[in-house]
Amino acid sequence: INAEWPLWPGYIQAVDSDGHNFTVSLGNVFRVSVSKDGGQHKVRAWADVIDRQSGVYLARIRLFEEVGDLTVDVKLKTGAHVRGSPFKIAGPLFHEGCACSEPDTADWVETMQCKSNYSQIDQDIDQFRDISVVDLATQAHKKFDSHYHLGHYVILDNRAYSKMIGEHTGLNRKFDDMLLSLLAKVNLPEMVPSRRAK
After folding, report:
1. How far is 136 from 165, CA to CA, in rounded Å?
2. 102 and 185 Cβ atoms separated by less than 8 Å
């Protein structure tokens, strides 16, 4: 099993010749490129480096094809490799559009090193457990006419189904993108909410 996210992040800490960390920006000094087959072939990918203005840089890579192992070159703009470069990332590595979900949810959760309990999320959701979505929709329509947004989602056979209510139905796009990305990576259990949360 291998689990990949759409963007691979890597941090670069700029240091001086004595190994002391820089704490200010050095400007646009790093270049990141990727290849496959031990550096022999190009990869369809997007890569960039973000200057965090603190001597730390964020390297991001988005793949557009599935690859076995990935070679990441991090160089100074002079062409010299930074220490440890090139870096090897073991595959297989999948692109965001890959429909290659892991059928065993438990294996995926273990690979992603998910905690067994997220108490903060449970606390945040607790206040909504006794809310009737049907009653909420009725009250929202009375109070705001059509100027509200409610989304109802069902996951069945690892597919997402949704119904949006209200005028501002575009607000669900970020959640849809996240949900579809997750469904491409792991088979989720069926989630069919009742009319009243229990």
Report:
1. 11
2. yes
- Distances in Å between the alpha carbon of 86 and those of 2, 6, 45, 174? 22, 21, 16, 34
Rounded CA Rg of the chain: 22
Going by C-beta distance under 8 Å and a sequence separation of 6 or more, which residues neighbour residue 171? 149
Determine the residue type at 164.
M
This prediction's pTM: 0.57
DSSP bridge pairs for 41:
36
Tens-binned pLDDT, residue by residue, of the chain (198 aa): 334 444 567 889 999 889 899 999 999 999 999 998 877 889 999 999 999 999 999 998 888 888 888 899 999 999 999 988 998 888 778 787 777 777 888 888 887 778 888 888 888 888 888 888 788 888 888 888 877 778 888 899 888 888 887 777 666 777 888 888 888 888 888 888 654 444
Task: Kindly state the tokens that stand for 163.
Answer: 């119904």
